[in-house]
Amino acid sequence: MRVFLGVKTYQLVSRVFIHPISPPAAVRCGRAASRCVHGSSENGKHPPSMLRHLTSKIKATGPIPVAEYMREVLTNPVTGYYVKKDVLGPDGDFITSPEISQIFGELVGVWIVSEWMGAGRPGTLQLVELGPGKGSLAGDILRVFSQLRSVLGETSVSLHLVEVSPALSLVQAQNLTGTCSREAHREDDPVYRRGTTGMGTPASWYRRLEDVPAGFSIFVAHEFFDALPIHKFQAGERREHVEVCAEGGVIIQQLAQRIVGDGGAALIADYGHDGTKTDTFRGFKEHQLHDVLSSPGSADLTADVDFSYLRWMAGGGVACLGPISQRTFLKNMGIDTRMQVLLRSCSDASSRKQLISSYHRLTDPADMGQRFHFFSLLHPGRLARPQHPEGLKLERKRSPAPLPVAGFSELSFS
């Protein structure tokens, strides 16, 4: 579907695109990774082993389901994959879109502002990120907010990070707030860390989504759902598999309920399919496929997100858009226009090469362009049709037509 935008939306995107790209920073993690100390334990004892832990657990309680295996391997607070090693970048096991290019986060930031405008410009805007990694995506989004401060006006903007790892929250706090953060005095406080970003945005950390306060919120989940534990079912040895992410279903219901009750939207970006795949459970190590049962704790475990399942679990109270490919979403958001601006202002051959390489990495169908998909939940009123006058009520004015949903419709800059 081709949609031509009005002047306001065109100006919104263009104003972000005229800003230069920041110099490349050190590689930052996009998903649930951390830099916890690892190596030998005290008193000369061997470091904790995931294999020994699982072996003891199975001997004591019997077989464990795939979901429990996945949860232990990835998030065990002592030996979990995400808490004992660096997993991102050329020397890690995978790399994510925000780490490849800040353009990705900039376009997500534009999408958020566009949806805030489409909702009628409410006086408060809560940016809520699930699984914020080291905070790089949130940092890119907040930079866009700062560039569009005149558009946001006096809107009260706040950052809310749902992160189960206190150690990882320290890394996020350092990257987003520097030294301007502090831990809660009480362990039972739902906000276990507070701070202020360098741009003056208040930031809060929570262990659970339900602890985030009510209010108009835009939820962002990038490579979050594919790391949630899945249950696998199989009828017989040669029949197709069925994968169900019950935890993901619960979270999507929570998001839908909050959007209906408080307004807002959710943007989910992940590996996935629309109910067309069955056996997607796999491991990644050093950017290569890895046997999920080999050396547990040494490789990432993931499963493609079934967006048809998320749509079904969200229910009929919210409007669901997508999934569409990352290539389609980014091109609809104007990544080509952004690249043209950057290349025109870049004279260094090495930087130009890096820009072009990152662009192809994000959009090439053979790379991330087709493997990643975007999916959105919107308040039903966001897409409500305008009222038409009837009978003797011709004097009534029509309600303005809703703005097109950026990213999920092709935007025209002509």
Keyword list:
disordered N terminus; 3-stranded antiparallel sheet; single chain; globular; alpha/beta; 17 strands
Describe the 3D structure.
With 414 residues, the protein is an alpha/beta fold. The protein is 36% helix and 20% strand. The strands form four sheets. Strands 2, 3, 4, 5, 6, 7, 10, 14, 15 and 16 form a ten-stranded mixed β-sheet that branches. It has a three-stranded antiparallel β-sheet with strand order 12-11-13. It has a two-stranded parallel ribbon with strand order 1-17. A hairpin with a 2-residue loop joins strand 11 and strand 12 (288-290). Helix 1 (7-17) runs antiparallel to helix 6 (102-118). The chain is globular and about 60 Å long. The protein starts with a strand and ends with a strand.
Number of H/I helices: 15
User: Quick one: overall form?
Assistant: globular
Strand content: 15-25%
Distance between the termini: 16 Å
Q: How many strands? A: 17
**Nearest-integer average pLDDT:** 83
In short:
The chain is built from 15 helices and 17 strands.
Helices and strands in order:
Elements: E1 2-4, H1 7-17, H2 50-61, H3 66-75, H4 81-84, H5 97-100, H6 102-118, E2 124-130, H7 136-147, H8 149-152, E3 156-162, H9 166-177, E4 181-183, E5 191-196, E6 202-206, E7 217-222, E8 231-234, E9 241-244, H10 246-262, E10 264-273, E11 282-285, E12 288-290, E13 300-302, E14 305-306, H11 307-314, E15 319-325, H12 326-333, H13 335-344, H14 349-363, H15 368-371, E16 372-378, E17 410-412
Parallel strand pairs: 1-17, 2-3, 2-7, 3-6, 7-10, 10-14
Antiparallel strand pairs: 4-5, 5-6, 8-9, 10-16, 11-12, 11-13, 15-16
